[in-house]
Amino acid sequence: MCRHVARVGPPLALGAVLTVPPHGLLRQSWAPRRQRHGTVNADGFGVGWYADGDPVPARYRRSGPVWGDQSFADLVRVVRSTTLLAAVRDATEPGADDEAAAAPFASGPWLFSHNGAVRGWPASLAPLARELPVEELLRLEARCDAALLWALVLRRLRDGDPPGQALADTVLEVAGAAPGSRLNLLVTDGTTIAATAWGDSLWSLVDEVAGTVVASEPYDDDPRWREVPDRTLLVADRAGVLLSPLKEPSR
Question: Which residues form the Glutamine amidotransferase type-2 domain (predicted)?
């Protein structure tokens, strides 16, 4: 269910990560190599990036398959940034949210994506949703599981939790409420990347040109790619990657 990627490093054209590599996100939309659930990611796509001097990212999102959007091909060829987060979507279930359900979700300096599915959605997360202020529920961009996960993460970020802690606590809370869920979450603030491996593949690469890349799967066959173990929190910046184990919630 979905593929996503984030990178932080020297200024680079977005396409150098998304479309130029032989197995970049563009190709992963129809031929992912390591996706464990689903086969084609054609239910929307998006990319978010940061401009110099502006902490609030820009986004480009659409509801259809990325391979049919020539504007996207032009955009990623010419736009350069130090940080990006992009995703292609395989919807958990049918809906009418269109591009509003496509990652990255955003608020302030943050970009967010979810690769996976919440087991028993939406009933399983109703108790957690009731804990959110009504105003936050009314502001949800879409009615999909990823949008609610973003609301749960965002609440923690706004309370001052660092991104890694916000993701880890959200994953453990949701996994306790909906066992069997796949919760690969990804967030960036423009300088750091945090991600979880929980039920699907996650990889990282540290390279002088590309910077630090965190992705659902490698976009080429560089032997320096490292697979992140399942049930792991990853926190990364330009200097490298730090991994911490996540424990299954007690039942």
Answer: 2-251
Q: Which residues pair with 184 in a beta bridge?
A: 115
At 240, list the tokens. Answer: 């490298």
Whether 169 is in a domain gets the answer yes
CATH of the domain at 163: 3.60.20.10
Give burial (CB, 10 Å; 0-12/13-18/19+) of 244: exposed
Residue 251 lies inside a defined structural domain of this protein:
no
Whether residue 38 contacts residue 150, with contact meaning beta carbons closer than 8 Å, is answered with no
pTM: 0.96
130-139 burial, b for 16+ CB within 10 Å, e for fewer? eebeeebeee
144 is a catalytic site residue: no
Q: Report d(CA 165, CA 39) in Å as an integer.
A: 31
Selected catalytic residue, list 2, 111, 195, 246: 2
DSSP structure class, residue 46: E
The total number of structural domains that make up the chain:
1
Question: What are 116's two structure tokens?
Answer: 């996976």
Q: In this structure, what token pair is assigned to residue 123?
A: 């009933």
Is 131:151 a contact under the CB 8 Å cutoff?
no
Closest CA to 228 of 249, 197, 251, 250: 197
Under 8 Å between Cβ of 46 and 186 = no
Question: pLDDT for 41-73, tens place per residue?
Answer: 888 999 999 999 999 999 999 999 999 999 999
**Which structural domain, as residue segments, surrounds residue 32?**
3-245
